[in-house]
Amino acid sequence: MDRDTVRHRSTGQSASGGGDEKHTKNVVDEPEEETGDAGSFRWTTLIRVLAGVIVTFVFIPGLLLLLVSLTVPAPINPVMISVPEPPKLEGALEVNDLLTRGERLFENEILGPESIVFHKGHMYTGTTDGKIVDIKDGKISVLATLGKPPCENEPNCGRQLGLRMHEGSLYVLDAYRGLFKISVETGKSELLLSEIDGEKPALLNNLDIDSNGIIYLTDSSVKWQRSQFLYSVLEGSGDGRLIRFDPHKNVTEELIGGLHFANGVQLSPDEDFVLVAETTYSRILRYHLKGPKKGQVDTFVENLPGLLDNIRPSSGGGYWLCDALPRGPGFSLFDFLAPRPLIRKLLTQLLSLETMLKFWAPSTVVYELNSQGEIIRSFWDVHQGRLGGCSEVNEHDGVLYTGSFHSPFIGKYDLKKMKKA
């Protein structure tokens, strides 16, 4: 083959005129068609993936939750709980670590010392097994047993909550069994009150006694038992009450009704009013016993930093409080759930009481109010959970002793050491 023939064959395609230009254009256009198809494929794939994610993580769970809400019986019938935004943690409420400096007394030797009383060198408290114990010189002995085993059945065994001392006798409020008077000398007990308005209570909580022996006590809920207290809080219905009981005449009188988990009780130093903690609404109400406002109810303090429990006097003329469930710092699960009754209802359909209690925050705050209801100082433990769910603060000889309805110890905090570094 000669050189001219080779040259002709190598250049013939480009020299063939318009047809060759058309062929060249087709060759150039083919990659554009492939790019469009690939882009369409990618968008289709992305849409399919997103649809799968929505179905898997939104639609199916939503459908399951709907089925649960329609088929699983709900133990509660929740209502709207209207609480203000939690208070700012500044000034007297500034977060600190002062509670981490305390001691745990009798750790793992007692369980659930809800309330504490001091009398002539003795410390008295109740435990989860239906016993009232006497602590003297570091030794624990049983003063009285109010319930009967087995304690797996709490109503049968009893659950001692509020304790007070009056004229040398110990008064104990059992959530299920009623009000008892116990001799600290012999341990002999006397049942003073077992029914209110002809019905047996199941969530009697706290009490105080005036100088004439008249007893003020709270019935936290007429619907729920003590072991179901969380249902009462989550439901938000006002079925608690403050009761006045005259043991001399064996007469009870409802002073305040419609309370949202009525809890701690404390008379003023002059006994001209009685305070009652309304746990669900993080506030304390005041019932006037004397003066021009006698028989009237007003708010003593509101929007407290947590869901409070008992109230006890301070040496400064004010009151000690502690919160079993603080509303801060950080995210407050209670404040999130309060205006969302449907979510609260669904939680009780999905989770057992035992499971929900595991979400109980380990953080704790103890604070002191002055006589006007103003917070003047606070002690915190937001990380270590050393206090373990406080129910009561009792000041004795310059030391704070804290109780808890579920912890296996009593907390001890020397006020002289509770100063910011």
UniProtKB/TrEMBL annotation:
<feature type="compositionally biased region" description="Basic and acidic residues">
    <location>
        <begin position="19"/>
        <end position="28"/>
    </location>
</feature>
<keyword id="KW-0597">Phosphoprotein</keyword>
<dbReference type="Pfam" id="PF20067">
    <property type="entry name" value="SSL_N"/>
</dbReference>
<comment type="similarity">
    <text>Belongs to the strictosidine synthase family.</text>
</comment>
<feature type="transmembrane region" description="Helical">
    <location>
        <begin position="49"/>
        <end position="72"/>
    </location>
</feature>
<keyword id="KW-1133">Transmembrane helix</keyword>
<protein>
    <recommendedName>
        <fullName>Strictosidine synthase conserved region domain-containing protein</fullName>
    </recommendedName>
</protein>
<feature type="region of interest" description="Disordered">
    <location>
        <begin position="1"/>
        <end position="37"/>
    </location>
</feature>
<dbReference type="GO" id="GO:0012505">
    <property type="term" value="C:endomembrane system"/>
</dbReference>
<dbReference type="InterPro" id="IPR011042">
    <property type="entry name" value="6-blade_b-propeller_TolB-like"/>
</dbReference>
<dbReference type="InterPro" id="IPR018119">
    <property type="entry name" value="Strictosidine_synth_cons-reg"/>
</dbReference>
<keyword id="KW-0472">Membrane</keyword>
<feature type="domain" description="Strictosidine synthase conserved region">
    <location>
        <begin position="205"/>
        <end position="292"/>
    </location>
</feature>
<keyword id="KW-0325">Glycoprotein</keyword>
<dbReference type="GO" id="GO:0016787">
    <property type="term" value="F:hydrolase activity"/>
</dbReference>
<dbReference type="Pfam" id="PF03088">
    <property type="entry name" value="Str_synth"/>
</dbReference>
<keyword id="KW-0812">Transmembrane</keyword>
